[in-house]
Amino acid sequence: MPIRPIFVVAGVGNATGTGAAAARVFANAGFRVALVARNKDHLEKAAADINKSGGEAAAFPVSAYTYSAITQLFDDIKKHDWGKPNEKAEIRAALWNAGSGIFKTFLEVTEEDINDSVQNNIVAAFAFSRQAVLTFKDNEIDEKGRRGTLIFTGATASIRGNVYTSAFAAGKHGLRALSQSLAKEFGKQNIHVAHAIIDGGILTDRSLQRRSTPEAQEEFKNNLDVRLSPESIAESYLYLTNQERSSWTWELDLRPAHEKW
Ligand SMILES: NC(=O)c1ccc[n+]([C@@H]2O[C@H](COP(=O)([O-])OP(=O)(O)OC[C@H]3O[C@@H](n4cnc5c(N)ncnc54)[C@H](OP(=O)(O)O)[C@@H]3O)[C@@H](O)[C@H]2O)c1
Ligand SMILES: *[C@@H]1O[C@H](CO)[C@@H](O)[C@H](O)[C@H]1NC(C)=O
Ligand SMILES: *[C@@H]1O[C@H](CO)[C@@H](O)[C@H](O)[C@H]1NC(C)=O
Ligand SMILES: *[C@@H]1O[C@H](CO)[C@@H](O)[C@H](O)[C@H]1NC(C)=O
């Protein structure tokens, strides 16, 4: 029976950022896509859009990024009926893209902020990684020497703390450490684990609104020299997923051409 690979992406927001771009790019490359996020309506719409453009995507909403919700998620994805009984569906790639960004001065950071960052950036990512690894372990090794690829979206805060990012950087540093440990442990089982440092602003509806003036918004939207496009990041994720086992990237560092930080 032919195998149709599934790509699981967690953190799709309202489908204007990296998560949704990755879903579209992987769908175009022949993956079925399992979309995961907290807002059911946005998810259903994103899945329907991919279906309309010739791909196959299904929505798997979670109530929150908790250990138990993420653990349950993989069972739901495996049980999903993709409607093609002559094709075997196998999860071959997974992206942990959800990220809880907290930007406050250190003295403003509350216990709740810290919990939020640790919960969303680390605890839930542990659950996601565990389920992805358990799933990949059951896969046969493919022609490029892999059972599966697990990718994490990082940020400047993954490697550098700064003013306003104490809580966020603690979470993203933890995520990076997790990905490095996983790469060491599961490379030996032909599971490719990669971490991407997104070192700059990504153009999304939400990040656009964070720019304080109309001029700054114009610049961020139209000047490709100063920010990252979700689609370009997604192309790099597909590239990681296509690497063969003799030269795997653990860490990728992506930044716009006119980086100045
Ligand atoms: N935007 C930037 O400038 C930028 C720069 C560098 C790195 N990054 C990282 O890139 C990744 C993708 O971000 P994106 O901006 O392109 O947006 P995105 O892919 O549309 O979505 C990011 C996801 O993070 C989740 N999220 C956001 N705030 C959260 C919170 N407080 N608690 C729990 N989950 C939260 C959202 O989950 P739901 O879908 O459930 O709402 C959202 O789907 C994130 O990991 C982010 O840290 C972003
Ligand atoms: C898209 O199509 C797939 C089957 O190819 C189906 O499983 C999924 O539920 C559909 N999603 C939406 C939102 O229509
Ligand atoms: C933060 O998490 C700890 C440990 O789970 C819990 O005891 C505490 O009540 C939480 N604090 C807040 C403000 O949510
Ligand atoms: C996405 O969210 C942002 C801010 O939360 C909002 O301004 C924007 O209109 C939303 N976009 C879509 C397509 O829903």
From TrEMBL:
Q: Which Pfam families match?
A: adh_short
Superkingdom of the organism of origin:
Eukaryota
InterPro entries registered for this protein in UniProt: NAD(P)-bd_dom_sf (IPR036291), SDR_fam (IPR002347)
Q: What is this protein called?
A: NAD-P-binding protein
Biological source species: Meripilus lineatus
Q: What is the lineage of its organism?
A: Eukaryota, Fungi, Dikarya, Basidiomycota, Agaricomycotina
